[in-house]
Amino acid sequence: MDNNKIGKYIASLRKQKNLTQHQLGDKLFVTDKAVSKWERGLSLPDITILGKLADELDTDIYSILQVEKKNNIDIDKILQEERIKMKKQLSKKIMIFILPIIFIGAATLYKLIPFGYNVEHIRYTHNEDKLINLGIPKFSFLMKNNENSYSYKNFRGKSILTSEIKNYLNTLNHISCNDTTYFYDTDANITIIDYSVKGNLIYNTISYNIINGNYCLDWQIKEYSKKIGNINTIHTLYAEKSNLIVYFLPSLESENNQNKWLATLNIYYNNGKNSKIIERSKGTFEIINDELIYYRTEITEHENNIEIPNVSNFVIKDQKLILKDNYLKDYEKSIILK
After folding, report:
1. Cβ-contact 135, 165 below 8 angstroms
2. Tally of CB atoms within 10 A around 249
3. In terms of domains, do 202 and 258 share one?
4. What is the chain's alpha carbon radius of gyration, rounded to the nearest angstrom?
5. Among the listed ranges 6-10, 205-209, 333-337, which one has the minimum average pLDDT value?
6. Span 317-331, average pLDDT
7. Quick one: pLDDT at residue 71?
8. Does 312 share its domain with 231?
9. Is the pLDDT of residue 200 over 70?
10. Domain range holding 168?
11. Chain-centroid distance, C-alpha 50
């Protein structure tokens, strides 16, 4: 049977009788919505009202159902088979409608649910051949690297991926220099200096930029070298005529993954007739902006009539060190070390 044809046939007979769907429904003790479903081929009249419907439309059951009139025909069986067929068709339509919704919902959840990250061991060959560690959000693919850069693709959401990367970075040492915080992996001896998650509607690209070693330690060495020149160069008194002899020797040691800036300061007085030691000390130093600050940790020898300070500040200018508070003014008006 063709349900659409049955529906159109019922509708045409109803209109010939000048009946509305509501009026026909009242006669059959059903709602106008039920009549509407019959006429649209969405359902069939029940066997119990099929005869009444035929009478109201001045026709017979066989004409309504558009089946050939035969002896011993089982109308109830025909209707039951049609209803089963219609239910299957309806279920199929519902599945066709629901499946895209389920797919969209699953894709949305996939983009929003955090799955965590894996620490992957990756070959690094730019400055040194070794294995390094990178925290890669799960389900990432298509890894690419170019010297110090590594990138991955991932279909999941940008905010979730960013959150998972931050969770990984929080397991590393946070180091600060150049007014920026970086992430240092002591095991792999690399620094992640930058990361990003960029992309479009379909996928996102996760990128890491790394530097071999501790970036802040290397940066500090470069900055100090710019200020005072070669770290192991002796700085001596810059004066045309002076009886004072000054040696300031900076040096660098690495300790517990930190730069340890050491220095020794030796000062002698020699006027040609006699000589004496003014100061022999050692300690540490740091450079802040344009000043070198020397912290004495031990004074081994010094002139009794001179009070040696615990800390001395030198202004840095053109890689020269100019002593600010000149405790040696009795010997030299200005102390400039080049």
Report:
1. yes
2. 16
3. no
4. 45
5. 6-10
6. 95
7. 54
8. yes
9. yes
10. 117-213
11. 66
pLDDT at position 82: 63
Whole-number Å distance between alpha carbons of 106 and 218: 47
Domain total for the chain? 3
Residue 164, SS3 per DSSP: helix
Domain boundary, last residue among 184, 213, 242? 213
pTM above 0.70, yes or no: no
* Count of positions (residues) in the chain: 338
As a whole number of angstroms, the distance between CA 192 and CA 177 comes to 13
Q: What is the CATH number of the domain that holds 50?
A: 1.10.260.40
What ranges in 128-252 are assigned the alpha helix state H? 158-169, 215-228
User: Who has greater pLDDT, 140 or 109?
Assistant: 140
Which of 56, 84, 109 marks a domain boundary? Answer: 109
* Residue 123: other Cβ atoms inside 10 A: 9
Q: pLDDT digit string (tens) for 222-275? A: 999 999 999 989 999 988 888 999 999 999 998 777 899 999 999 999 988 888
Angle between helices 47-56 and 75-112 (to 10 degrees): 110
Q: Of all residues in the chain, what percent carry a pLDDT higher than 70?
A: 94
Dist. CA 63–CA 300, nearest whole Å: 123
Q: Which two tokens stand for residue 12?
A: 């045409």
236 shares a domain with 193: no
Mean pLDDT (the chain, rounded): 89
CA 189 to CA 130: how far, in whole Å?
A: 10
DSSP character string of 228-289: HSSTTPPEEB--SS-SEEEEEEEEEEEETTEEEEEEEEEEEEE-SS-EEEEEEEEEEEEEET
